[in-house]
Amino acid sequence: MTKYDELLQNMTFYSLESINNRIKYHERELKRLKFIRLILSGVSVNNASRICGFSRQYGYKIIKNCIKNNKSKKGRHCKLNSSQMEILINYLNEKMPFSIIDVKCFLEDQNIKYCEKQIRRIINGLGFSYCRLLKGYINVYGHKKLIENIDDKISLK
């Protein structure tokens, strides 16, 4: 058995159709990238579209998609606006260590409903982490009192 035959046997998980589809996709992607390169070099949308071989409308659609992709905001918008987020951060900094239930009750008082999993994501995104010794979430950076409390609890054991 030659090396070529071994290679063909190992590549049986790819079908010829799937490979052709992947090639077509990458060719289209390459055209889009060439179009973007032309636009960035200063060519007008009309001329760049004509050079790449598609309509002007499709060229504007490519540009619009590039702008959308740079925003990279996927998923649902946050229920908290910026002022509510500041209030939440101040509350969390005052009430340390805190539990998820504390935060959930606080948010429900503000008429904002989140599940505990989403609250955990928000808290972790704000830089807080769970401390087993204090049995709650804390923000270790910049809080010397909490670090001293942790040191005291460690020395007591």
What percentage of amino acids are in beta strands? under 5%
Q: If you average the pLDDT, what whole number results?
A: 78
Taking the alpha carbons of the first and last residues, their distance comes to 69 Å
How many domains make up the 3D coordinates? 2
Description:
The chain has 157 residues and is mostly helical. It contains 8 helices and 2 strands. The chain has helices spanning 3-10, 16-40, 45-52, 56-71, 82-94, 100-109, 116-125, 144-156, and strands spanning 129-131, 136-138. It folds into 2 domains: 15-70; 82-156. α2 packs antiparallel against α3 and α3 (45-52) packs across α4 (56-71).
Tell me briefly what this model is.
With 157 residues, the chain is mainly alpha-helical. It is 66% helix and 4% strand.
Output the keywords:
two-stranded antiparallel ribbon; Transposase; Homeodomain-like_sf; 4% strand; mainly alpha; 2 domains; 2 strands; flat; 157 residues
Break the fold down into its secondary structure elements and pairings:
Blueprint: H1 3-10, H2 16-40, H3 45-52, H4 56-71, H5 82-94, H6 100-109, H7 116-125, E1 129-131, E2 136-138, H8 144-156
Antiparallel strand pairs: 1-2
Helix pairs in contact: 2-3, 3-4
Organism: Picrophilus torridus (strain ATCC 700027 / DSM 9790 / JCM 10055 / NBRC 100828 / KAW 2/3)
Protein name: Transposase
